[in-house]
Amino acid sequence: FDNFDAWRGPYGELPVSPLREKVIQSLPAGLVLVSDELHAQEHSLEAFIPFLQYPGFSRGGSEDNAGNPPAVEILPILVTRLSGELFDTAVAALADALREQFRHSDMRLGRDVVILISADCVHYGDEQWGAGGYAPFGVGEDGYRRAVDQDLDIIRASLTGPVDQKKVALFRSRVERDDLAWPYQVTWCGVYSIPFGLSVLGSLSREEGREDPRGILLGYSTSLDPGKLDLEGTGLGATNINTLRHWVGYSAIGYW
What we know:
- By secondary structure, the protein is α+β, with helices and mostly antiparallel strands.
- Helices cover 33% and strands 14% of the residues.
- The protein has 7 helices and 7 strands; from the N terminus they run E-E-H-H-H-H-E-H-E-H-E-H-E-E.
- It has helices at residues 19-26, 36-41, 49-53, 84-105, 141-158, 165-175, 193-207; strands at 6-9, 12-15, 120-124, 161-162, 188-189, 214-222, 247-255.
- A hairpin with a 2-residue loop joins strand 1 (6-9) and strand 2.
- Helix 1 (19-26) crosses helix 4 and helix 5 (141-158) runs antiparallel to helix 6 (165-175).
- The longest helix has 22 residues, at 84-105.
- The radius of gyration is 19 Å and the shape is globular.
- The relative contact order is 0.13.
């Protein structure tokens, strides 16, 4: 967890929910690490902030008469690797802690609270990837198509349709590694947040008598498609090369 009061975004500061401290107090001490340093080094959670702040983006939370962004609070959590029983223990502990706070605050999943998961799909290529290359299918057009097809197959098999614990286990078996070595079997980034977040979501849903969350693939693209964006005047700049020898896949999946 972080210890920040708010996160900065393009529309000002986005406050952290006071639920954070209550959730932390409800968790076993051995499952909790509070580190602003780790959060400051991350590059996943802040990608949500512009969308959460954007006037009219949140359902029922459109801008007020002064054009201010909707009132949204966040509870940021970074997820590391959790294997075996520790994974199940951490999922149950967080789901119980959230469920308790939702009950005390008269909050409901899907009405007042949503779970957002931030991760990338495959990081692919043999150039400028740090310690090693991630190009099992080669780096030409055929390698690109095969890597994209592999991403889509993983998504359709394990992250869409009714997502139960069997599908969560299938995702982990296809993407992660058991020996903590790098890279993963398939080089997705932030991969641990996916099975953890979906398991917490499933636990909260079942507690409310709902069916398992159903995943719908809303979109898939790569950093090569649609290609280079016009950044003039945005204040943004290029952070890395973007070629068949260095690209990233992205998906958007909604769960209901």
